[in-house]
Each structure stands twice: as structure tokens, then as C-alpha cells.
Amino acid sequence: MSTLTIRLPDDTAERLKSLARSQGMSVNTLVEELSAQALSAWDTENHFRALAATGNLQDALAILDRLDAEERDAGP
């Protein structure tokens, strides 16, 4: 595991601490979860860019349709 030091404005750091407390977790765990979400979104974007580069529009649209259907089925 790596240690990473980041610099944040004081207000941002305090808000992150408050958010972590409200979720019953440490700031470290919160940052891990937020990082995982951001990386997942980035990976998804890169996957779609790779599909787009192949020119296979139908496959990309089919994936989007499937994701929309899953989101509808999951509900609020």
C-alpha cells in the first residue's frame, strides 16, 4: 500500500472530514471510495473511447441501452 500526501484548501479538508464523519468512516476510507469511483468512471470512458475507435457504433449503443435498462430496473 502507498502513502500519498495531498494539499487541500482548509475548507475542503474540513468538509471532507465532516462528510467522512457523517458516513461513519475515516477520511482515508472516504478518499479511497471516492478514488475508486473516479477511476471506475475513467475506465468506463476509456472503454467507450476504444469502442468508438473501432467504429462499431451498434455495439456501443447496445451497451448504453443495457445500462439504461439496468438503471431503470434498479429504481430509485
Automatic annotation (TrEMBL):
InterPro entries: CopG, Ribbon_hlx_hlx
BP-aspect Gene Ontology terms: regulation of DNA-templated transcription
Superkingdom of source: Bacteria
Span of domain Ribbon-helix-helix protein CopG: 4-34
Pfam families: RHH_1 (PF01402)
UniProt-listed SUPFAM superfamilies: Ribbon-helix-helix
TM region(s), chain numbering: none
Matching CDD domains: RHH_CopG_NikR-like
Protein name (record): Toxin-antitoxin system HicB family antitoxin
Organism: Thiocapsa imhoffii
